[in-house]
Amino acid sequence: MTTFHPFPRLPLELREQIWKDTVEPRTVDVRRTREYNQLVSSTPIPAILQSCREARNLGLYERVYFEVAAVKKFKNDHAPEMLIKDFFMPDEEQGEKEPEKVGCPKTEQRYVWLDFDIDMLDIGASYFSKYKAIAPAIKRLKFERENGCEYFYHTESRRLKEFINVEEVHIVCADGFWMWAGAIEDHGWSCAEEKLVFTDAFDGRVARGKEFEIVCRQMLKDMRLEATGEAFSTDDEES
Q: Using CA atoms, how far apart are residues 222 and 215, in angstroms rounded to an integer?
């Protein structure tokens, strides 16, 4: 049975609780196209918001707006497929220039639906500065970076402190685990270290907190052994 016809006859309190129980944690991705800085998200609208007015009126999700550059209208109101695939990536040479300083076109609003308490916002390689307005509200954040990138390591990583209420952070290590050795101490995370989850972009390995540092140290030991035939000494491990 796909339809429960007596549902509308249930007490309002029971119906509301049923609607709330249908809500599950999601990963909501947000990207910007390189050429137009247009908001792109492959995450569908929560099904509950498409069911009926009663469910929508419960306010289980917030409509979160992002300011994006206005886009020229193409045939059938769709931009070329290449623009959708070509996500915005940080440009080390441009740094964090604001739109008005680089001559960006008039802006318009785009939005996604979020439950800040349980949803994870996945921003990929987009700049942290693009999310400054909502940073204090984000509790679960996912992003992709190269720790070997000078701009991220020395400059952009400072913006992590703007996510003051974040409770869990997932980091996709675009340049591999070994480049992120010491990252727990090197960057200013707002959440506890056991809530830091690292994923190696090359082999998909996942490690959390202290476990991650142990994995990185072992990788460095293995690399040194392979290159020189010498393992770390006891003094190396204590340093």
A: 11
